Amino acid sequence: MADALSHSCDQQSQNIPQISELCVAVEPKIASSFRQWLKLHNFEDTSRLSLRISSTVVAVPVTRLFLNEILKDKDYEEDCAIEGFSFKLLRANLPFKVKNTAYSNGTICLIKALKSLKHSAFSWNEALAKDLPSCWEIHGDLLMLPESCFVMKDWEALGGELWPIVASAFRSSRVAKRGHIVNNDFRSPLVTLLLGSNSWVEHVDNRIRYRYDIAKCMFSSGNITEKIRIGHFKCAGETVVDLFAGIGYFTLPYLVHANASLVYACEWNPDAVEALKINLALNGVTSRCIVLEGDNQKTCPKRVADRVNLGLIPSSEGSWEVACAALKLDTGGILHVHGNVTGKVHKKKHNVFDSSVSTVCSPAGTAEPKESIHSCNRLLLLNTSSETTDNGCSNGEELTANNVHTEIPNQTHLGEGKSKKRLKPEWTEWAFNAGRRMKEILQNQTLRDWLVTIVHIEHVKSYAPHIDHLVVDIRCLPNSQHSAR
């Protein structure tokens, strides 16, 4: 089967160039000075813009000269430093600089082409300029246009002649237009292919190749920081269950970089499953992944997992019981729970602590799983028994519900320095609620007591000022000393 998939991959790889470019990931507090250093040494890639991809990561474009001369002996994932600047390498799609205050270079070329076009039924007018795309996506040789452009009736006169002109202006050979997400069980993208016959594209993130049909599957480049974080987990010897595998967004980092021994990838979208199998072959990890097609409520294995990934937003709560049932009974494991959290909804102060909650202080770097770029430095223990302590706490001090420290500065923020982001009350409340619910599910399933610990809260991205995509890492360990009541 692997040979067949590899053959399929080779066939589809024709005319699908890899589009992600290497850049440098730095903390926001040093981004400006690092760019100045690059400019001083002629290492700045002036064709692309820097992009803040999370609260603590800025992707800075660099030239090939920088990569070849400065980093020629560096491993891709190695921590790098030069003249006091610390950074990592990253693959990302950075926007190209605008050459004109009103239009990008591609748009300027398009306007020139349309103005010079001699067509009996079409003539250029300035009103059409407002109907040109103000933003777009480039996927290899495929130009993805937004729904809001080319809607005026004037374009109908050109018919199919329009799209080769557009493709040429943006140096593409295929053109597609994105619509709204289809409100079905698969959240399928509504994409119309305007030029070309093949809608398969390839994307490279963090040295992992993702190939998929852009007309049938979604891809979120905004999750890159979470993919990088997963890649730093130490999963050798572990079994992972990915409940919402998709095309392999998180399945592949677990296999390629975290070195998981086995991943069960659950996915019910047949188009995503097709892409997932291709991507496993592309990255050479087919033998370590079992793809389970169908509803994870029915396909997910039980009592096999050291980790369960619940990468569904806005909420994965519908599969929390399935996730708990997947954890190993004797040793437990870690749940990585994604969710969208809305902030500033309640005017009253949040009290995230109650009689079932105690807090254990842990210095930076002691919490598992290993944290990569972001650090919350907060270890919160959910436990109904005050006799139980967390073996991961370096100082062994347990703060019970009657003696909770809530004003420790370095335990209320994410990141450091200017990039420090406050750990919002809504985030901790959501994490605690998830932990409490997981504890309740596990005790009901096993009739045993469980020690449930909030290990880490990760801020992935923000959709709006009041909506944040978070991941909470919840360690669940069976407590043999106490039986559930």
Describe this structure in words.
By secondary structure, this protein is of the alpha+beta class. It contains eleven helices and 22 strands. It has helices at 2-12, 28-40, 64-70, 105-116, 162-169, 224-231, 251-256, 270-282, 296-299, 320-326, 425-446, and strands spanning 21-26, 51-54, 57-61, 80-82, 85-92, 137-139, 142-145, 174-181, 189-195, 200-205, 208-213, 239-242, 262-267, 289-293, 307-310, 333-342, 357-359, 380-382, 413-414, 421-422, 449-464, 467-479. The strands form five sheets. It has a nine-stranded mixed sheet with strand order 14-13-12-15-16-22-21-18-17, with helices on both faces. A five-stranded antiparallel sheet has the order 2-3-1-5-4. Strands 6-7-8-9 form a four-stranded mixed sheet. A hairpin with a 2-residue loop joins β21 (449-464) and β22 (467-479). α1 packs across α8 (270-282). The radius of gyration is 25 Å and the shape is globular. Residues 1-20, 98-103, 345-420 and 481-485 have low confidence and may be disordered.
Ordered list of secondary-structure elements with their pairings:
Elements: H1 2-12, E1 21-26, H2 28-40, E2 51-54, E3 57-61, H3 64-70, E4 80-82, E5 85-92, H4 105-116, E6 137-139, E7 142-145, H5 162-169, E8 174-181, E9 189-195, E10 200-205, E11 208-213, H6 224-231, E12 239-242, H7 251-256, E13 262-267, H8 270-282, E14 289-293, H9 296-299, E15 307-310, H10 320-326, E16 333-342, E17 357-359, E18 380-382, E19 413-414, E20 421-422, H11 425-446, E21 449-464, E22 467-479
Parallel strand pairs: 7-8, 12-13, 12-15, 13-14, 15-16
Antiparallel strand pairs: 1-3, 1-5, 2-3, 4-5, 6-7, 8-9, 10-11, 16-22, 17-18, 18-21, 19-20, 21-22
Helix pairs in contact: 1-8, 4-5, 10-11
